[in-house]
Amino acid sequence: MKGDEFGRHRVLSPAGALPQAAERLDAEMDGATHVYDDEVELDAEVLNIDSASFRQIEESVLAAGVAPAGLDAAVAKVVLDTVRARGKQHNPVTGSGGMLLGRVRRIGAAVADVVGLGRGLAVGDRVATLVSLTTTPLRLERVVAVRRAQHQLEVVGRAVLFATGQLVKLPTDLQEDMALAALDVAGAAPQVARLARAMGARRVAVLGGGGKSGVLACAAARAAVGPSSAGGRVVAIEGGASYAAQLEALGLCDAVIVHDARDALGVRDRVLAAAGGEVDLMVSCVNVPDVEMSAILATRNGGTVYFFSMATSFTKAALGAEGVSRDVTMIIGNGYCPGHAEETVALLRELPALRALFEARYGRARG
Ligand code: NAP
Question: Per the structure, how many domains does the chain have?
Fold first, then answer.
């Protein structure tokens, strides 16, 4: 059977929606009525839940009175319930998903013709999906383990990718869970590199610089602005002392400042002092809401703010900038740009200290 390249054949409701915006997807994969020639089917093994989503799930179960000992089970139940109700891992509060690691189970006969999915793919390959779980039909049999520090769930399940989807074979020289964590935020560093180079940026700041995307963004920014000795400045604001210390140890930044990124005036003062002025490019990589004005106020007129964070509010950014007459270009963090997975993996290979940090935080050898 032929499906639709955008996956509309999998949308159950509302009628006419595309899969990402849909309320419910059809995640049935067995039987003649559900086998499509232009889909790739995967055995899902690890879900990498989007950071803003995972944080919201944890906070919601804690607020409901779940004891710390029951946290793993409660998080697993929230994810299982969401996937059963929606046919995909689409957090109804944050609107975000994540991505998954799995093994290719079936390649539809028409997939070889499809850009993005067809290149050299074979049944049994270990792959990471590069489209959001909010767009990915998913069925979960069970959750085997919850790895809260990594925002990852080991699962038994099945998933589908459409013709316009993207996946990448897992690099064999990197630990799988670490690669998955980096690939989850694969759009961040390449976009920062492109933006910074295109505008000839000399000063870049990263909010939430100690997290996954933040560290990668700092690495890309450093490469783009050049060394401190030649006037390039990279400044990070980070909430947690331990992540800040880890980032500082990488030597990518001129300053790593422990400060609440939601404190707009405090962030402005500290960024300006450390960078020597308002920045050309500001990158928001936090996983909490309410940093729009911090990002805007520390960016020069004519500069660019790249909102990678899923906790960003379009309204707060647009009306906030208008309210202080700030002429900044604001960019939504598209998770995709051509070559993003390869560029992100290349960064890990090129910078041994960065790779070691990712291995220590997110890696776990798998047989
Ligand atoms: P992460 O690893 O959890 O990093 C988030 C960082 O923000 C952490 O270092 C965290 O530090 C810091 N932070 C949180 N609250 C803060 C505050 N008030 N002040 C300063 N720092 C604060 O998350 P990630 O995986 O890099 O993801 C970052 C964001 O990008 C999330 O919103 C995620 O949903 C989004 N995302 C976007 C895309 C896309 O395609 N655009 C793809 C994937 C993820 P502490 O926790 O130590 O405070």
Answer: 2
User: For 179-200, how does the pLDDT look when each residue is reduced to its tens digit (9 = 90+)?
Assistant: 999 999 999 999 999 999 999 9
285 lines ligand 1 (CB under 6 A): yes
Residue 252's domain spans which residues? 188-356
pLDDT at residue 118 tops 80: no
The CA-based angle 34-38-41, given to 5 degrees, is 60
pTM given for the model: 0.93
Q: Are residues 136 and 194 in the same domain?
A: no
Determine whether the shortest distance from the Cβ of 190 to ligand 1 is under 6 A: no
Does the beta carbon of 261 sit less than 6 angstroms from any atom of ligand 1?
yes
Q: Is the pLDDT of residue 45 over 90?
A: yes
Contact yes or no for 127/102 (Cβ under 8 A): yes
Task: Identify which of 260, 264, 306, 249 has the alpha carbon closest to the alpha carbon of residue 281.
Answer: 306
Domain CATH number, residue 253 = 3.40.50.720
Judged against a pLDDT cut of 90, whether residue 244 lies above it is answered with: yes
Q: Which of 287, 288, 307 to mutate to test the pocket of ligand 1 (most atoms within 8 A of CB)?
A: 287
Domain check: are 221 and 254 in the same one? yes
Q: How many residues does the chain have?
A: 367
Residue 84 located in a structural domain: yes
Rounded to 5 degrees, φ, ψ at 44 are -80, 135
User: 28 CB less than 6 Å from ligand 1?
Assistant: no
358 lines ligand 1 (CB under 6 A): no
